[in-house]
Amino acid sequence: MPTLWIRFPGRRYHATPWGHHVNEGLVEWPPSPWRLLRALLATGYAKQHWPAEGPPPLARSLIEKLASTAPRYCVPPAVGTHSRHYMPLARFKNGREDTTLVFDTWAQVDDGELGVRWDVALSDDERTLLAELARELGYLGRSESWVDATLADTDNATGFDVFAGEARDCPGAGWEQVALLAPHSAGDYSAWRVGALAEAQAQTGIAPHKPRYTAAEKKKLAAVDQTLPQDLLACLQVDTAWLHRLGWSQPPGSRKLLYWRRSNSLESAAPQPRPAMRRGASVSCMLLALNAASGNLNALPRVERALPQGELLHRGLVANASRLGGHSVVLSGCDEQRKPLATPHQHAHLIHLDLDGDGRLDHVLIWAPMGLDADAQAAVRATRRSYTKGGVGALHLALAGSGDWAHFAALPDPFGPRLRALLGNGDDGAIRWRSLTPFVPPRHLKAQGRNNLLGQINAELASRNLPDTLSCQIFDSHTDDVARRARHFKRVRGQGTPPPQDVGFVLELEFAAPVRGPIALGYGSHYGLGTFVAIE
């Protein structure tokens, strides 16, 4: 028997039962057979490029077979929960923008796996097509309900205890019925359509089976015919606007089917008080992955915007730290009296990175020489989004890893080598280092003395307990690609003191002995500027 196993990588499933409003706070659990078939059809059009005229014969045969029987479900534990949002109505009331309360309800599935089994026999070609559609299925229900589906064959009914049945089929105490939208079989719909079409045509007053019809009568009969989809596949593809226009309260070809499920299949959880923050071991760094709301990698900010992205993320981290546990010394760089730390450059550095080499920022490394304590780690985990100038929607943040440098240095390609270059490529570090982002001098440049370029670099190294550099090579933007690109970096903070001079250098530093990184020097070094990578 064909069986779909569905996981939810986002750990939640959003879907409102048919005939209910989103603010009723109900969740369609398990997903209705009607929703599953529509999702397979949508995947075929989107991923397999089916023609606009309709699915190919093989797909039509597959969908009709799946519609011919009510599937059984193996339902994982889930908790029904919700969030509340006050949506603006683009109008003012009593001098304030008017809003309306909207509930966002979902089933918290976590790592559970949903099973759907159809008691039908499929041909080899139909099974192959179903496996392809399952593999390409991106979401189920609302678009944020991401799914990872696979097809299996099983005759084992163990666990598939959610089934369609009448009241007399109740398994016993602890069970309840829930109505799910399901399709009629293709044959049942065709038979129903013949009678419904004859009834609708009779209401027009046009005599049936006339030898000849006038043009007006043909037009009226054609309009009546358009109110009833031609077959079950057409029913599954009608949209809401069509249903509203013709006054359908339920899609043609569908029916409400009562399913028996356990009463605790979708539990409700009362809000729990926030536990006291645990005091665990600190870590030296945490890695966050960036993703655009649209999922388009080209919507991520370019590497030249490392500084403003670092500022935006820093504000979010400090705000979340204050919300969760109060002032965070390691994230803010200030003590409890909001004064800069006496030991400089020991607090968090936000190093935005392009780990896949496409010229866009896709990760951010939060590194603190003094260590990220439990409060700081909680604030990082609570920061789920950031923003970018000119972007469409928020940037989503996900924790990719936390620990010490040894953990990140051991990562495989393609991320491991780029992260190891920040550390020095080896256990002992490296002798030669080159700019990843431009170095902006923290003081006015002088031709001679301690405030010349080399003097400022050595002063920055000394403040970080690093040895002086033996030599400093400056790369010309006319001859070096990296230096040419560095001209377009944003070098002035949006908030905070501007640099003495808006100038950036691409440098290569050489030391007398290997030096371990990370190395971040100069103005804006805690927000992404002045970062160096080992080149040997």
What does this entry look like structurally?
It is a single chain. By secondary structure, the protein is α+β, with helices and mostly antiparallel strands. The chain folds into three domains: 2-80 and 106-184 and 253-262, Alpha-Beta Plaits (2-Layer Sandwich), CATH 3.30.70; 273-423, Alpha-Beta Plaits, CATH 3.30.70; 424-536. It contains 14 helices and 21 strands. The protein has helices spanning 33-47, 57-67, 124-136, 186-202, 215-226, 232-236, 240-246, 306-324, 329-332, 374-382, 405-409, 415-423, 453-463, 481-486; strands at residues 2-7, 12-13, 72-74, 78-93, 96-108, 113-117, 148-153, 163-164, 175-183, 254-262, 266-268, 283-292, 349-353, 363-372, 385-386, 395-403, 430-435, 471-474, 507-515, 519-520, 531-534. The strands form five sheets. Strands 13-14-12-16-15 form a five-stranded antiparallel beta sheet. Strands 18-19-17-21-20 form a five-stranded antiparallel beta sheet. A hairpin with a 2-residue loop joins strand 4 and strand 5. Mean pLDDT is 87; it is low at 270-278.
